[in-house]
Amino acid sequence: MLSVEIYQYQKGFVHAKTMVTDKKIAMVGTANMDFRSFDLNFEVNAIVYDTPIATELSDIFYRDLKDALKINPIYWNSRPVYKKLLEKAARLLSPLL
User: 27, 47 in Cβ contact below 8 A?
Assistant: First the structure.
């Protein structure tokens, strides 16, 4: 079974879009993984086949993780209804933002 953990960064926010695979391949760029970024904003990412760069990006990620709190799924699912409604409204308006 696949396990996913979600963390909330506590020192502001991280705007970086990075992905590292096996500390050998990295992807960096401006695009979120959504249609808006690719189709409307013409954002791009670069795939880097370089172990030292991939390792450095991985190390940065784990350093940032020290300043993040793990989200408890039970707590997250029991958040107030008004917060869930605000999130849904923001999602509905996201194409205009």
Answer: yes
Q: Is the pLDDT of residue 96 over 90?
A: no
Interval 18-72: pLDDT, tens? 999 999 999 998 887 777 776 777 788 899 999 999 999 999 999 999 999 999 9
Distance of CA 83 to the CA centre of its chain: 20
The predicted model scores a pTM of 0.73
CA atoms within 13 A on the CB side of 72: 4
What residue type is 29 in one-letter code? G
Q: Among 47, 37, 40, which residue's Cα sits nearest to residue 15?
A: 37
Q: Which residue has the tokens 């605000």?
A: 86
Task: Please classify residue 20 by burial: count the beta carbons closer than 10 Å to its beta carbon, then call 0-12 exposed, 13-18 middle and 19+ buried.
Answer: buried
Assign residue 81 a region (left: φ > 0; alpha: ψ between -120 and 50; beta: otherwise).
alpha
CB atoms within 10 A of CB 26: 22
